[in-house]
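User: I'm preparing a small set of examples for a lab meeting where we compare how different chains pack in three dimensions. I only have the primary sequence for this one, and I'd like the structure in token form so I can line it up with the others. Please keep the answer compact; I'll paste it straight into my notes.
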Amino acid sequence: MARTDFKQRMRDGEILIGVSAPISATKSQMEDILGKDDYAFINTDSQHSAFNEETLVQFCGYADELDIPVQFRIKHTWQAYLIGNLLDLGPAGIEVPQVEEPETVDEALKYFYYPQVGRRSWGGAARWQIAADGDRLRYADWWNSHGWLCLQMESIQAVSNARLLAKAGVDCLTWGPSDLLYDIEAHPQHPFRTVDDCVRHALKQLEGTTTRISFRSYDYNLRSKYIDMGVTVLMESPKP
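Assistant: Understood. Below is the structure token output for the 240-residue chain.
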């Protein structure tokens, strides 16, 4: 199967740059976005965007034709139980927003991975790389080793619990800087005064694990700053 090393590259700490695209993007628009830099993945969103399943299948189909894996942010934290259904539509990675509790992590893990690791149900003709090998056991084993799961931290509580959220099978803890700033502003006496304070704290907690920090900076001009801090996965807007 193609692109089999992405998850391992992530776990190994390789610098991986993702670029965002609207879920309604045409293939030519996607080609234009991907032509602006050497991107490792493309991410799209349903949390803050209109979304239907057919559009996601089409988006992932275009990405597959362009040989780029898709990371998809789901609508809501409480919909972690739908992760398996959404993966059947073509994403290679899932991002769950506003995660704070270890119980949410357990729910996400259960429906992200196939048995005997998780409880994801078998099926779906649009699944990432399913055309390469549709054997049930081989594909399930391949998926469990190559699909990636991201949980988004958007509060001081989540940052404080970063080590507890980084359970086996969680590949990245990602960031929502704007919502995190709301929480920082609501706790003016807390020692974490900036998003960067939170990033440094989380990086320290994750030392010795295979869970990486993925930072949604949007701005490619900030790439070197966060790489120097120890961030290895970045999500950016397309270059102008």
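A couple of notes for your slides: The mean pLDDT is 95. Strands lie at 16-20, 41-45, 70-73, 93-96, 148-153, 172-175, 212-218, 233-236.

User: Perfect, thanks.
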